[in-house]
Amino acid sequence: MRKWLVCLAIFLTLTLMAATVRVLLWDDALTQALREGLPEFEKKTGIKVELELVPSATLLQKTLISVTAERSDYDLIAVDEPNIPLVAPLLLSFAQWPETKFYTRPSMADIMPLALEAGQWKGEFKGLPVNANVYIWLTRKDIIEKYKDEFKKEYGYEMRVPKTLQELLDMAKFLSKKGIYGWAPFTKPTEGATCEAIWMFESFGTKVLQVTDKGYNVVLDKQKAIEAINFYKELLKYAPPGALDYGHAERVAAFSRGEVFSMFNWPALVPDIENPEKSLVAGNVVYTEPPAGPVKTAAVRGCWIVAIPLAAKEKTAAAEFAYWWMSVETGRKLIPKGLTPARESLLRDPVYSKERPWFLGIYQSMQYAIERPRFERYPEVSQVIRNNWLDAVSGRVSPEVAVDRMVEEINAVLKKYGY
Amino acid sequence: MFVLPALIVVGVILAYPVIYALVISFTDRELLYLGKTNFIGLKHYREMLLDRNFWHSLRLQFGVITIAIPIELIIGLFVAILFNRDFPFSKILRSLLMLPVFVLPVLSGLTWRLMLQPSYGVLASFFNFISLGPTAWLADTRYAYVAILLQDIWRMWPFMFMIIYAGLSSMPSEYVEAARIDGANFFQRFWYVLLPYLKPVIATAFLLRMIDALRIFSEVYVMTYGGPSNATMLLSLYIHKQAFEFGRLSYAASVAVFLLIVALFISYFVVKRGLRGEVE
Amino acid sequence: MRKRVISFVVLSVALLIVLVELFPIMVVIVNGFKRDIDIWSKNPFYFKPTLRSYQLIFRHREFPRSLRNSFVVASLSALVSVSLGSMAAYGLSRFNFKFNDALIFILLMVRMIPQISLAVPFYMIFRSIGLNDNVLGLSLAHISFNLPYVVALLLPFFSSIPKEYEEAAKVDGCKTFQIFLKIFFPLASAGIVVAAVFAFLMSWNEFIYALVLTGTRAKTAPIVVNAFMGQYAPLWGQLSAAGTIMLLPVFAVTLSLQRYIIRGLSAGGIKG
Q1: Nearest to B244 among A61, A89, A394 (CB)
Q2: Interface contact A241-B118, CB threshold 8 A
Q3: CATH architecture of B52-279
Q4: Domain extent listing, chain C
Q5: Which residues from A are below 8 Å from C53, CB to CB?
Q6: What pLDDT score does C242 carry?
Q7: Which residues of C touch A273 (CB under 8 A)?
Q8: Cβ neighbours around C162 below 10 Å, total
Q9: Does C232 touch chain A (CB under 8 A)?
Q10: ipTM of the shown complex
Q11: Residues 66-85 of C with CB under 8 A from B
Q12: Percentage of residues of chain A with pLDDT beyond 90
């Protein structure tokens, strides 16, 4: 009887002492894999985890519902790269994260350097970069295999994973005669369309907004921007019907149906494409960096960081959780369940590259990562970029007018907020 | 005593938010407010009136009233006349017709989006077959708007039908009989007997639908998200975007207040009409 | 004979209209019995029925809970709206207050406020008092459109009850509240049923407030249904299956209560 009581007492104290850490993350294959690892973490640390996953498009709104400077419903939140400047004032800087007992701070040297950079704002790390999210390029190797020779006869070089945008265009032209669409864009009026614009602009050698210590300058080069738009329009001729209304769902569907030869995607969507239950092209895809433009190869980066709100109650437990997530052991355990690591050592590990060829693709792409403008008012700037970009590539207005408007409207946003 | 609880609740959850919105609209408070909130007077209203996107969105929202509702009315009217007689199964068919009115707007929007998918949507295949419009309706600025209106017409004409039908069935049959005996043909009967009789009913239905049209949001949100470009960015979506994508809560509140005033203006007529009807 | 022919023609036309009109709903139902991939990789008429999508949504991490939330929010807001609303409608129709007409006018008018206008202030108020992402908070928001609606719907019902009933009850020595509960409530029961059903449905279908005011805990089913079109391959099968389930109360109500509905709608619609 006494033994029981002691047990009960210990159990009670343990439960009462056990911290509960509330974590708010985006919802995809990666974070779902994380869920699978929770029991182990809870067992080791005695910290209970309440993990809430929301679609990435609504994450910012949900974050701002529940986190203010004075009060926070969550102890650890994920923040998408372009939103860091906006949310930064609410976050504990990474340097001030508390000491932990069970897990140690990951070696920053092993985190992909460009992913690391994503967590920075005004010279300070605002959180821990937890994924290496970047455009990776998908190409169907079975199509290459099938038309290699025929293509060579016509164009004089062998069909391969397109190394340049020009090659992509050649192959798209060629494949259109075979009933295959060479490429698929992202054209829904959401953040994805802004990414496309930035990707093309950078590939053609121009940026939209320069952020310096002195302030913000619109630096869009009209000539280069117009070239980029015209090239994109050319590519659009070889995209599937309805390509001017293409979001994630449409793109994945078109690619998985086997209609599309080559396009970008975010790593989180790749597991679906490699899942035979959801895709007709599983096993036939090569993953690389995007084809180079005339000036450079550009891969838009959209890393997530996890951060501790200033008002969080369980800061130590939150740090434990983040460190656990980033540890090599956790990575090894959860990769088979769908985790995409941010550590170079794991991404390049040959153990995984066979079954998960996109890991190497992520690694390669990350070398060419570019970022979207960093700016507290980014959402509005993004809207300006995407609307004018879409107007131009869909032919509603001429590229010249669109570029002029883009510059003018961004300047108006800057002016509105007194920058 | 009986009215009080309801009044208190309405005061707390309706009047207070409305006043709150009004007050906020004169300040610069934002989604992520850290410092103190400043009073900025009518600045937001000025910005709103100068924003061409605002006017564009307003036009789109009103387009529903000027384009979709009259079509709904016409379909509803003729189907009501068709149903206003005895024929087998008329009752069950009538109630089946009501289903779309109660379908969740989100589901309706999503289903139309599915049906309009260029490579696997039923409706898209059909439109292509009869060569109507572009392959991808939702990718075309003009047809995306048409699609939205079509969706609304599909869902809401039965509402018009129901109300007109109810009005028709209460119409004394002597009216039509008398006209028939006088030798009036169908169109004369329709024009001189039916329409005048139904006029108040139609007017009320129209006004009710106008208010509805100012509320349209979720169907469009899930169908096009305001796109392509801004082609279907109704005022309600504009407000939502300003508030929750750009974080400009107080500016969004100004636009919301504007929409509120328009809606109250219209509902003033609806209610006045309804009350008068009651007195008669 | 001529009559038979006409009625046959009318029937066929009516049948055609109904078929066309219900087509999208049939699309939803049929797609619920397809696999996600079959919907977007085969032609629209390919159909190999399977219960896979239904299995998936019931094992889905969020859908069952959101369905429960929807049910709770809809019931709660309908219940509160109907109890307070019927009392208010009774009071307004039976007693002559000084501001009676003005009150009726205001109540009828606020019924028509567009939700999006209130979404922003609700969001801000709820955030400051911690009612965001809370089933109770969402129910409150729903009451804001349901309560005035119920009053508007019930007013004519109560006014149409003859004065004699009340006087008879008074003679029997009933107190005012008892009169309401024992006499008027049953007499207006048809209207009250309609009001409850409509309030439930409006809340069940509601999207804007749910979108703006809830996070993960109080999320209702329409939000989850929309999330099937997230950033993955489109899950049309599961979306349709979940949609079909959401439609069940709609079917039940429109088909079984149709006599009431027509009455209720014409009362609420025409006179309101």
Answers
A1: A61
A2: yes
A3: Orthogonal Bundle (1.10)
A4: 62-266
A5: none
A6: 94
A7: 233
A8: 9
A9: yes
A10: 0.87
A11: 80, 84-85
A12: 40
Say how far apart CA C158 and CA C94 lie, in whole Å. 8
List pLDDT tens digits, range C32-57: 998 888 887 777 788 888 888 899 89
Q: How far apart are the first and last CA of chain C?
A: 43
The whole-angstrom distance between C270's CA and the closest CA on chain B is 6
Task: Give the type of residue at A336.
Answer: P
pLDDT the model gives residue A4? 67
- CB contacts of A252 in chain B (<8 Å) are none
Q: Which residues pair with A121 in a beta bridge?
A: A124
Among left, alpha and beta (phi > 0; psi -120 to 50; other), residue C260 is alpha
Residues B140, A244: C-beta atoms closer than 8 Å: yes
Contact B6 C225 (CB under 8 A): no
The answer, for A249 touching chain C at a CB cutoff of 8 Å, is yes
Chain A residue with Cα closest to B232: A189
Cβ contact (<8 Å) for A252 and C230? no
Q: Residue A21 is inside which H or E element, if any?
A: strand A20-26
d(CA A213, CA A159) in angstroms, rounded, equals: 46
Distance from CA of B166 to the nearest CA of C (A): 6
Say which of B31, B139, B241 has its CB closest to residue A64.
B31
Can you tell me the distance from the alpha carbon of B67 to that of A67, in angstroms, rounded to the nearest whole number? 43
For A243-300, the pLDDT digits (tens) are: 888 888 889 889 998 999 999 998 888 888 888 888 889 889 999 999 999 999 999 9
Q: What is the pLDDT of residues B168-189, one digit of tens each?
A: 877 777 777 777 777 777 778 7
How sure is the predictor about C139, in pLDDT bands with cuts at 50, 70 and 90? very high
Q: Find the radius of gyration of the CA atoms of chain C.
A: 23
Taking the mean position of all CA atoms in its chain, how far away is CA C154? Answer: 16
Residue type, B138: L
**A touches which chains (3+ CB pairs under 8 A)?**
B, C
Q: Which residues of C fall within a CB distance of 8 Å from B5?
A: 84, 87-88
What does the domain layout of chain B look like in residue ranges?
Answer: 52-279
Taking only the tens place, the pLDDT of each residue in C190-235 is 788 888 988 898 899 999 999 888 877 888 999 999 888 866 677 8
Q: Which CATH architecture has domain C62-266?
A: Orthogonal Bundle (1.10)
Q: Tell me if C41 and A280 make a contact (CB, 8 A cut-off).
A: yes
Judged by CB atoms closer than 8 Å, whether chains meet at B24 and C119 is answered as no
Average pLDDT for chain A: 87
Of A310, A290, A303, nearest to A199 (Cα)? A290
- CA nearest B18 in C: which residue? C118
Q: How many angstroms separate the CA atoms of C255 and A128, rounded?
A: 56
Distance between CA B161 and CA C269 in Å, rounded?
12
Q: Which chain A residues contact residue B228 at CB under 8 A?
A: 187, 189, 244-245, 390, 394
- R_g of chain B computed on alpha carbons: 23
Per-residue pLDDT 10s for chain B (280 aa) are 677 888 888 888 888 999 999 998 998 887 776 567 788 889 999 999 999 899 999 999 999 989 999 999 999 999 998 888 878 888 888 888 888 988 999 999 999 999 998 878 889 888 888 888 787 888 888 899 999 999 999 999 998 888 888 888 777 777 777 777 777 777 787 888 788 888 888 887 887 788 788 889 999 999 988 878 788 999 999 999 998 888 888 999 999 999 999 888 888 887 777 665 543 3
Please state, rounded to an integer, the average pLDDT across all residues of chain B: 85
- What pLDDT does C272 receive? 25
Chain A contact for C123 (CB, 8 A cutoff): yes
Rounded to a whole number of angstroms, the distance between the first and last alpha carbons of chain A is: 72
Residue whose structure tokens are 């009209």: A222
CB contact under 8 A, A65 and C123: yes
Contact B32 A243 (CB under 8 A): no
Question: Quick check: pTM over 0.90?
Answer: no
